[in-house]
Every structure is written in structure tokens, then in C-alpha cells.
Design brief:
heterodimer; A: mainly beta; six-stranded mixed sheet; four-stranded antiparallel sheet; 0% helix; B: mainly beta; 57% strand; globular
Chain lengths: 115, 115
């Protein structure tokens, strides 16, 4: 079965410091991987995705993610965190449904950026 | 995403009542999804529809039903609500034509409380 794991329920970072939110996956075949962000009282917003190609993927709001096939990981990163980055972050993997686009989500990581 | 509208945004009701949550989209997407979000569990797929005549169960469809009234409308029903269906519900859409690596676009959710 395909799955994704986010091992940290919460990550705390000081503003200006680099941040990493971890994600590992388990899929059969080549993975399609996604990161989403959720702000309070809002739906999920797409940040970035990995389909193929360069292992370092750049996305919205200065975020990037590194795909590592040998470690089956897709960690979200940002060189310098902002207080406004505080939110709930979800990693997701596309499940092969014969041409569909069904996603399996991780349990989410709460990012708290403090002054 | 303002192009995916969910109504109502909040609902409090009693055990045994029938409830319908509605979703409409102006993105022109073929594919629509219903998820529920519970703290610590992430998002879990309830039902999905790849076009008007295609309805599929997700991982937690028991106790729920759906109707795809048109390409733009996808409603979720709880025939006889129970307290453990208290959750945050999200509708999402995705585009078929541009391939299965496309992200899903989410509404702002319906917070449902069942007493």
C-alpha cells in the first residue's frame, strides 16, 4: 500500500533560521509527491510537487523540497523562516488509480516560527 | 481557493439528522473529491468523482453518500449523522486534461459538529 509519513507533529524554528519539515513515502513505482500548506480556517494550498527531473524542487513563498530516492524522502525546506510561515504542512503522494489523481496525505506537521 | 466554494462553512446538528454539504467550482475541472480532516489523522478521502457519471468510494465512505449533479457540483450527504462524524470536511478539484501530476485545489472547508 502507498503511504506517506510525517514523523514530527510540530516543528519550532526561530525567525531567520532555516527550516525543514520531514516527509518519507512508500509507493510502488515512481512517486508523484506534493506539499500543501493550511492556514487557520482555510483549505489546503498547493506549495510544490515532484514528478520527475531535478531532485530539488522550488515552489511558492520561497519553499523548496528535496527528493531523495534512496532514502524515500521528500523534505520541505526554506533557507530563512518567517513568522508568517507558521501553519500546518501536509505531504502527499499520488496513488496510482489507472490514470487518476487520488492523493494520500500524511498526518501533518505544525510549523511554529517565533521571533 | 475562491474558485472552490463550500456551503455551509459551519454546521451544528444533532445525532440522527440528515445533512448535506455542498461544493461548487468554477475551475472547469472534471475531478472532484471529498475529504475529512481530523486532528492527528490528516486528510482522509471519503469519495471521489472523475466525471459526472463516475463515482468512487474512498478509504472511509461508510456512513456517507455523494451526488455529482453537474460537472461543477459535488455534494456529500450524511444520511443519519453520528458524533464521530464531527470533523472538518474539504472538497477539492483537479484537472484531468493536463495530466495526473496536477495538484488538487481545495475549498475552505465545512466545520461540522454533531451533538
Amino acid at each position: 500500500a502507498q503511504s506517506v509519513a510525517q514523523p514530527e507533529d510540530q516543528v519550532n524554528v526561530a525567525e531567520g533560521n532555516p527550516l525543514t519539515v520531514k516527509c518519507t513515502y512508500s509507493v510502488s513505482g515512481n512517486p508523484y509527491l506534493f506539499w500543501y500548506v493550511q492556514y487557520p480556517n482555510r483549505g489546503l494550498q498547493f506549495l510544490l510537487k515532484y514528478i520527475t527531473g531535478d531532485n530539488l524542487v522550488k515552489g511558492s513563498y520561497g519553499f523548496e523540497a528535496e527528493f531523495n530516492k534512496s532514502q524515500t524522502s521528500f523534505h520541505l525546506k526554506k533557507p530563512s523562516a518567517l513568522v508568517s510561515d507558521s501553519a500546518l504542512y501536509f505531504c502527499a503522494v499520488r496513488v496510482n488509480t489507472g490514470g487518476g489523481n487520488k492523493l494520500t496525505f500524511g498526518t501533518g506537521t505544525q510549523l511554529k516560527v517565533e521571533l | 481557493d475562491a474558485d472552490v466554494t463550500q456551503t455551509p462553512r459551519n454546521r451544528i446538528t444533532k445525532t440522527g439528522k440528515r445533512i448535506m454539504l455542498e461544493c461548487s467550482q468554477t475551475k472547469g475541472h472534471d475531478r472532484m473529491y471529498w475529504y475529512r480532516q481530523d486532528p492527528g489523522l490528516g486528510l482522509r478521502l471519503i469519495y471521489y468523482s472523475f466525471d459526472v457519471k463516475d463515482i468512487n468510494k474512498g478509504e472511509i465512505s461508510d456512513g456517507y453518500s455523494v451526488s455529482r449533479q453537474a460537472q461543477a457540483k459535488f455534494s456529500l450527504s450524511l444520511e443519519s449523522a453520528i458524533p464521530n462524524q464531527t470533523a472538518l470536511y474539504f472538497c477539492a478539484t483537479s484537472d484531468r486534461i493536463t495530466g495526473s501530476g496536477q495538484p488538487q485545489h481545495f475549498g475552505d472547508g465545512t466545520r461540522l459538529s454533531i451533538l
